[in-house]
Amino acid sequence: MKKWMQFLVLITSITSASVLLASGGEGGGSQMPPVTNAKWKAECGSCHMLYHPGLLPERSWNKMMAGLDKHFGENASLDAATRDEITRFLALNSADKQDNRRSSRINQSIPASATPLRISETRYFISKHDEVSASTFKRKSIGSAANCVACHKGAEKGDFSESQVKIPR
Amino acid sequence: MRNSIILAALLFSINAFATTPQVLLKQYEVQAKQENPAFTGFSAERGAIFFRAERTHSDGKKVSCSTCHTSDPRNQGKTRANKVIEPLAPSVNPQRLTDAAKVEKWFGRNCRDVLERACTAQEKGDYIQYLVNLK
After folding, report:
1. Which residue of A23, A90, B5, B50 has the lowest C-beta tally within 10 Å?
2. Angle, to 10 degrees, between the axis of helix B100-115 and the axis of helix B21-35?
3. Which tens digit of pLDDT belongs to each residue from A80-133?
């Protein structure tokens, strides 16, 4: 192996080890572990908050990434190389690949025959927000149910713990 | 050897798109002359009108560039998903108009979104001239 490749492998293993530690040791923590990719951050965080890959199964991400030219009424298309890199990143960290309780529950709440594009339409999301009214989601400070970060400060890092929830006026 | 090739490639790819508003204006001028032999130059006034012009989209909604960017490019705007858009005017946001690929990407998306067609080089240049002139 070339020296620089060894170095890359070393860095990668250190990073994945610390991700494992952060999620509570043996993997399988209750929160989704923070994940990141520079292209994803730049391209998927300009119109809205970054949605953690562990919020939807791989088939949902694949479908979404194949239709970026008509993305919820907007054109979010990317060049092929960028799109493919982001698709791989999303797939690798998707709800059916993640070993944490939150992602498993989301995944289990989606029927095998369904491929939802909205997290906010999954059964898991609906049951967790049954006490939040439609008019609350429409507040000017929030906008819609899709704007998780308005109420969950740590949403972009995958932290949706109850202790962090605060609904703005 | 290999390292230096990688380093060189990296530096090149970072610099490949780095630009300034003035360089962008030159590039759009070349294109505008190709699109229209009678081209006479860019106009900040036309750019300002273009930015605020409201039209009815085929989905029935009224749209303009200022729907998201507000009527003053020195202000923060907001996306449809309620995320803040930093100001477009380089005088208040120096990062704007410094990445040619980014500028083209957003012209591509935003023009289709508002006008349901691509913008012409004349429109892009007028608009950049307007942004640059804002103090």
Report:
1. B5
2. 50
3. 999 999 999 999 999 999 889 999 999 999 999 999 999 999 999 999 999 999
What pairs with residue B77 in β-bridges? Answer: B85
Domains of chain A: total? 1
Min Cα separation B37/chain A (Å): 31
Residue B91's Cβ-side half-sphere holds a number of Cα atoms within 13 Å equal to 12
B26 touching A (Cβ < 8 Å): no
Which one, of A24, A63, A54, lies nearest residue A36 by Cα? A54
Residue in A with minimal Cα distance to B57: A73
Model pTM? 0.87
- Go through the domains of chain B in sequence order and give each one's CATH number: 19-133 (1.10.760.10)
The complex's ipTM? 0.80
What DSSP state is assigned to residue B75? S
Contact B79/A150, CB-based, under 8 Å?
no
| H-helix or E-strand spanning residue B78 | strand B77-78
Q: Which residues of A48-87 are buried (b: 16+ CB within 10 A; e: fewer)?
A: bbbbbbbbbbbbbbeebbeebeeeeebebbbeeeebebbb
Is position A15 within any domain? no
- A4:B108 CB<8 A: no
- DSSP lists the bridge partners of residue A71 as A74
Q: Which tokens is A12 given?
A: 């990668």
Q: Give residue A165's identity as a one-letter amino acid code.
A: V
Question: Does the residue A96 lie in any domain?
Answer: yes
Contact check, Cβ <8 Å, B2/A4? yes
The alpha-carbon gap from B48 to the nearest alpha carbon of chain A, in Å, equals 24
* Angle, helices B121-133/B21-35, rounded to nearest 10 degrees: 150
